[in-house]
Amino acid sequence: xxxxxxxxxxxxxxxxxxxxxxxxxxxxxxxxxxxxxxxxxxxxxxxxxxxxxxxxxxxxxxxxxxxxxxxxxxxxxxxxxxxxxxxxxxxxxxxxxxxxxxxxxxxxxxxxxxxxxxxxxxxxxxxxxxxxxxxxxxxxxxxxxxxxxxxxxxxxxxxxxxxxxxxxxxxxxxxxxxxxxxxxxxxxxxxxxxxxxxxxxxxxxxxxxxxxxxxxxxxxxxxxxxxxxxxxxxxxxxxxxxxxxxxxxxxxxxxxxxxxxxxxxxxxxxxxxxxxxxxxxxxxxxxxxxxxxxxxxxxxxx
Length: 302
Known about the structure:
This protein is mainly alpha-helical. It contains eight helices and four strands. The chain is 70% helix and 4% strand. The strands form two sheets. Strands 1-2 form a two-stranded antiparallel sheet. It has a two-stranded antiparallel sheet with strand order 3-4.
């Protein structure tokens, strides 16, 4: 086959273009810090990058869910702590009220304090987190209890608010009002739960100086206190689990971010060395091309 000048020039242009393309690739990597600019650069790296980015995004969402769940349970724990204080105080008042030397005026003063504690108990039943009522089951946009101490909603104990906090990992963040205020029974709108009913019985006994009824109130309040402590223990266990999961998610995020960086980011030293090599090849190809293009008719006539 006869090799013509035109063939030499075309091949030279193709080689120079290829060399320039490779040099441009390394220049792009150096500028962006990434191994690939488009998926076709390396489909395997691109596919792995998409998977790792998805994993990191999922972990970020789980972390948001964890923070929201922790905040919800912290508000619940605060309300339960206040209820604990209320029933401890009510128990103290119940024990003191059995003193036969107390006058009706003394009992009346105790009744006034019990009424204030009752009001606070009703207020705590309507505790909210971010505008959502924490004891109302699924109906978080509605108050759980009326001002008179009756339930405002029908709430089943199965109304559990579930948060996804990890891959195939979820947690119930709410306490249903019936489980707490009604001795574990579901609530019916218009009814009065055990907590409020016991306080009302205590106030009535104080106002009527019913010694027999007053003698039973300490046990009733201690039972309610035990119920509050039971729920607090459950909430505390969930908080501990959330803290452990939060630590695990933080470690997972660091690990996946590291893997993502190793998969996508270039080694700067290697990239600079490769770029220099391609620059040398490109310059050599230009120099070689100059020798091929240089001859003309004048050169042959010399």
